[in-house]
Design a protein that fits this description.
By secondary structure, the chain is α/β, with parallel strands linked by helices. The chain folds into two domains: 8-146 and 345-364, 2-Layer Sandwich (Nucleotidyltransferase, domain 5); 168-340, ATPase, nucleotide binding domain (Nucleotidyltransferase, domain 5), CATH 3.30.420. Helix content is 37%, strand content 20%. The longest helix has 22 residues, at 279-300. β3 (26-33) and β4 form a beta hairpin.
Length: 366
């Protein structure tokens, strides 16, 4: 087992990359020189401020100007930028890797996304800044990356198929960096990555492709997600309480998991309760760790148990209380590394840096 981040500084002043990552309550920006972060800033957005914008894309002008102002405040020399890396929005499913931002992508994100989220603005902000500079903007490993093989999509209800959606950016970056740090080629390994945060998703990387995933609606429960539920009991619960889809989605996505049990989404608080002797908190955390473990085991059978490495990442991976239980459960499958944190900004920069180096090719959005 190995703990700790594996990112290595790789200063390259000729390859400065601006990274843009909008979220629901902030817009994060950073400038990297190669893989070295030069500076980072998180621009907050209050609920009151955002109420003035009925649609996500109505925020585009406002967020773009705030990004430009932050760049100016940091004396960012735009002439040194070689590319802009933007968080991938909720586009239709696509393979992993870099995709060049174009007008069609922006039109899709504004008018035909798979869902509405602030991340859909990233490509548009990047494009607006990149165009006058004569450089390219890219997205990398969006949430909707889907490379699953056909056999794992089939369910017992013909009209319902499984799909790939999860923390692809951080999971794929963690797998690739683990391989690089151990002198191994990503495209020759079978790796399971579990990203544990507010929501938990898992992925199986086989020979350079994410061939199966467990999304946050079908896997472990987490601090705020319900995860997998017994279908018949769920339908009875909805019927008995007069709940429709509009009422259920906020419950399942934001107000379940640890929050439903203990009224907090802070894993640290629940862990402290367990350590201090709260038997219910200890049992629920054990169940959450077991759910992650069971889903790791479930993914392993897709490649007949031939797993080279298991990686635990995300914010909850900082908790030795949780990771120790998971390691105890799954180390019979493969060695386990703990790489805590999300590292989204560095993952975006690293992906586009590989494109600039010619180690990867960017696709054109069609």
């Amino acid at each position: 087992m190995r703990r700790g981040p594996l990112w290595k500084g790789d200063k390259d002043v000729k390859n400065k990359i601006l990274v843009i990552n909008p979220g629901s309550t902030s817009t994060k920006i950073a400038v990297f020189s190669g893989k070295d972060m030069l500076w980072q800033e998180s621009i907050p957005h209050s609920p009151e401020e955002l109420k003035a914008y009925p649609r996500i894309f109505d925020q585009l002008d406002m967020r773009t100007e705030l990004v430009r102002a932050a760049m100016k405040a940091h004396d960012c020399d735009t002439g040194e930028l070689q590319a802009i890396a933007a968080r991938g929005g909720l586009l239709p499913p696509a393979p992993a890797g870099a995709v060049e931002v174009n007008e069609l992508m922006l039109d899709t994100l504004e008018h035909r996304p798979t869902n509405h989220h602030a991340s859909n603005l990233a490509a548009a902000i990047a494009y607006r800044i990149a165009q006058p500079l004569g450089i390219k903007a890219y997205i990398y490993d969006p949430v909707t990356t889907d490379e699953m093989i056909d056999v794992v999509r089939i369910t017992g209800l013909k009209e319902v198929r499984r799909y790939g959606q999860g923390h692809n950016l951080n999971m794929r970056a963690a797998a690739m960096e683990w391989c690089a740090s151990n002198g191994l080629e990503y495209r020759r390994q079978n790796i399971i990555v579990a990203h544990m945060g507010g929501g938990t998703t898992l992925s199986l990387h086989s020979q350079g492709r994410i061939i199966d995933m467990v999304s946050d609606d079908e896997g472990p429960f987490s601090p705020e997600r319900a995860g997998e539920l017994p279908t018949y009991r769920l339908m009875a619960f909805m019927e008995n309480n007069g709940l429709d889809r509009a009422a259920m989605m906020p419950l399942l996505h934001d107000n379940s998991g640890l929050y439903a049990w203990f009224g907090t989404k802070d894993m640290r608080q629940v862990e402290k309760m367990a350590v201090d002797g709260d038997a219910e908190a200890a049992l629920v955390l054990q169940a959450m760790a077991l759910a992650v473990s069971k889903n790791i085991a479930k993914l392993s059978v897709v490649v007949q148990g031939q797993i080279d490495q298991i990686i635990l990442t995300g914010g909850i991976a900082y908790s030795g209380y949780i990771t120790d239980m998971i390691i105890s459960n799954v180390s019979f499958i493969a060695p386990v590394s703990v790489l805590p944190g999300e590292n989204e900004m560095r993952a975006l920069a690293s992906g586009i840096y590989r494109v600039l180096q010619g180690k990867e090719s960017a696709r054109i959005y069609q």
